Amino acid sequence: MESLDRQLRYFVRIAETKSLSRAADGLDLTQSAISRQLASLEAYVGNALFVRTGRGVELTDCGRRLLAAAKPAYAAIDEALEDIREREGLSRGTIRVATVHTLSYYFTADVLAQFVGRHEQVNLSLMGRSSPDVVALVESGRADLGFVYDVAVNSADLAATPLFDDEMCLIAPKSHRLPVPVDLNKADIKLVGFPPHYALHKMLRAAVKKPQIVAEAETVDAMLQLVASGVGACVLPSRIPDRVLAEHDLVKTAIASPVLKRRIVAITRTDRPSSPLVQELLQLATAAAH
Question: What is the pLDDT of residue 2?
Fold first, then answer.
């Protein structure tokens, strides 16, 4: 029964994302693992639930009927469980926080440290992801609170609380000769960027006329290592601590043009009230941002 419950929840997530890979990322699974779970569920049902398309997957007639029953049922179950937790005033349990990778270097760690200091009995789970993945985790209920760039939030199911504006800078080896401040539309600079679905990648593509992105990395650490190896420079928030860059012998350079700035927001779901603990964590984040 436990296995069937898990498979049905995975099925709902695949249907919501219309992608096995996206669903797997949001559930912290490999694509092969979620594919096996789906195959087992389809064998149990006796019918295919999805058809593969060039862009992902689409529900079959059987899949649509199952989703119509399963999605509201799980939403009601999750809401009831959350309501019970709130009514009982639980001070134990787990709070799941999703954050864009960059924030873990200069914001979320400090906020979470304050929270843990107040609630030593609460288990805190932190997930570093891209902006779209943070949104997906909160939307699906796999995260209670998310910290993300506002441009990635486009859902009536999410409430966004503004925190602060993040201004970008160019990061390069100390030996790299650059004008200060640098104009990214005029300087001939090779860049290491995040993958295309990341908010910072989209920002570069939209603001810089012809960005020379020669390599991509999914984490800040990997990006800084590539920059230190001479592959190119990178664009990251100017709040990245100097001590982190010093480990790679890198320095920041201000960007004169274009203006690269994004707003950080905290996101929660609108269809269910946040627990008192999540509300307190959000208050700590808001206070730390101002």
Answer: 46
CA angle 107, 109, 113 (to 5 degrees): 125
> Are the beta carbons of 50 and 57 closer than 8 angstroms?
yes
Distance CA 182, CA 180 (A): 5
- Cα–Cα distance between 30 and 235 in angstroms, integer? 29
β-partners of residue 193 are: 216
Q: DSSP code of 213? A: E
User: What residues contact 188, with CB distance under 8 A and at least 6 apart?
Assistant: 212
Q: Which fold has domain 94-164+263-289?
A: D-Maltodextrin-Binding Protein; domain 2 (3.40.190)
Name the CATH code of domain 4-75 (choices 1.10.10.10, 3.30.70.270, 1.20.1250.20, 3.40.50.300): 1.10.10.10
Residue carrying the six token digits 């009601």:
76
* Cis preceding-peptide flag for 181 (omega within 30 of 0): yes
Q: Is the domain covering 166-262 a CATH 3.40.190.10 domain? A: yes
Return the closest-CA partner of residue 221 out of 200, 198, 204, 240.
Answer: 240
Q: How far is CA 150 from CA 55, 120, 196, in A?
A: 25, 31, 17
Reported as a single tens digit per residue, the pLDDT across 194-216 is 999 898 899 999 999 989 999 99
Which has the closest alpha carbon to 255: 191, 162, 163? 191
CB 193 within 8 A of CB 235: yes
Range of lowest pLDDT (19-23, 144-148, 189-193, 213-217): 19-23
**What are the C-alpha distances in Å from 16 to residues 113, 134, 137, 257?**
33, 15, 12, 39
Closest residue by Cα to residue 239 from 130, 172, 166: 166
Which DSSP symbol is given to 273?
A: P
